[in-house]
Amino acid sequence: MSNDQSAMNELHWLIDMVQTIEVGLVVLDRDYNIQLWNGFMENHSGVSPNSIKGGNLFEKFPDLPGDWLKQKMESVFLLKNRTFISWEQRPYVFKFKNYRPVTGRADFMFQNVTLLPLASLTGEITHISIIVYDVTDIAVNKLQLKSANEQLEELSQTDGLTQLHNRRYWQICMEKEFERHSRYGDTSTLVMIDIDHFKQVNDKYGHPAGDKVIQHIAYLLKQSLRETDCAGRYGGEEFAVVLSKTTAEEALHFTERLRKRIEESEIAFENRLIKVTVSLGINDLSEQLDNSSNWLSGADKALYIAKQQGRNKSIVFK
Ligand SMILES: Nc1nc2c(ncn2[C@@H]2O[C@H](COP(=O)(O)OP(=O)(O)OP(=O)(O)O)[C@@H](O)[C@H]2O)c(=O)[nH]1
Fold first, then answer.
1. pLDDT by residue (tens digit) across 253-289?
2. Distance 187 CA to ligand 1 centre (A)
3. Is 250 known to be catalytic?
């Protein structure tokens, strides 16, 4: 075979490969007119190379992010350097439908795109190549993993019954607040809340009714809070709240308002109306405390006194 023939063969093979490769290949001239449009691009856009050749890319595809993409391409022409566009930066450049069965949950093909400067024989950058990789599988997997992790994180911080913080996460919140106090002297107040005679509720109405009562108290509690407050389900029928930037006196207003709302409300369960009350223990940070456990145990002691004094009461620890 002559050298010419062999070169012709190579060219033929290359063209065949360019046409069939599972990667999008486009070549544009300096004015963004399309010079090459391979099989991948044809299959996914539905536009054949013959009908598009010579046409302006942005006129043929008005959906493209024109200004943004031109800016990227201009810098490729100018700096003679390739540029990458990741799906994480922009999910896709060409809006192609996703037909893959495995990743059926994505409506559009996620793409990584490379913009490659093409030099003429004289070394001038006269053209640019757009290389489009279908990364839908990778992107969907990564997004699913991210969402699963977020759900897990959410689950591990949240109490399933009440959607308040769970005990562990609330404790972290409380310790952070205590540290802020130790460092900056910020005042905060801790409140422990316990439903009165809750065992009787379970015994009289059943456990599901008890659960509904717990949810109801959590709902009223959430409604009474500010953004910066941190509330958690501390135990079965016990809740704990850190009221930030709040003195004991201010906290007493908060607890009395909440206590009265609970006392006045009724919980409907299977055609019956349940009424409950709560007892609350309050402890602020006005005394010098060695650690956050002392802060908590002070509120717990105040709660105990509230119970002893007949329940349905708020008591400040002294
Ligand atoms: N329904 C329901 N009951 C729970 C849950 N967690 C704990 N309990 C019940 O809550 C009750 C708590 O009872 P006790 O700690 O004896 O106190 P109490 O009856 O509330 O009485 P005082 O606190 O002294 O007013 C127990 O019977 C637990 O079984 C829960 O998630 N759902």
1. 999 999 999 999 999 999 999 999 999 999 999 888 8
2. 32
3. no
Shortest-distance atom of ligand 1 to CA 236: 6
**What's the domain range around 269?**
158-316
> pLDDT by residue (tens digit) across 156-179?
899 989 999 999 999 999 999 999
Instruction: Say yes or no: 122 and 213 in one domain.
Output: no
Looking at the fold, whether 162 and 139 belong to one and the same domain comes out as no
| CA atoms in the 13 A half-sphere facing the CB of 14 | 6
CATH of the domain at 202: 3.30.70.270
The mean pLDDT value of the chain amounts to 93
Listed residues 82, 117, 143: the one ending a domain: 143
Q: Is the ipTM of this complex over 0.95?
A: no
pLDDT below 50 — which residues of the chain? none
The residue to mutate among 163, 199, 214, having the most atoms of ligand 1 within 8 angstroms of its beta carbon, is 199
Task: Compute CA distances 64 → 45, 69, 90, whole Å.
Answer: 13, 8, 12
Measured in angstroms, how far is the CA atom of residue 173 from the centroid of ligand 1?
Answer: 25
Q: Could you report the per-residue pLDDT of 72-81, keeping only the tens digit for each? A: 999 999 999 9
Residues with CB under 6 Å of ligand 1 are 194-199, 202, 207, 210-211, 214, 236-237, 307, 311
170 Cα–ligand 1 center, Å: 20
Alpha carbon separation from 72 to 19, 77, 80, 81, 110 (Å, rounded): 26, 9, 12, 11, 19
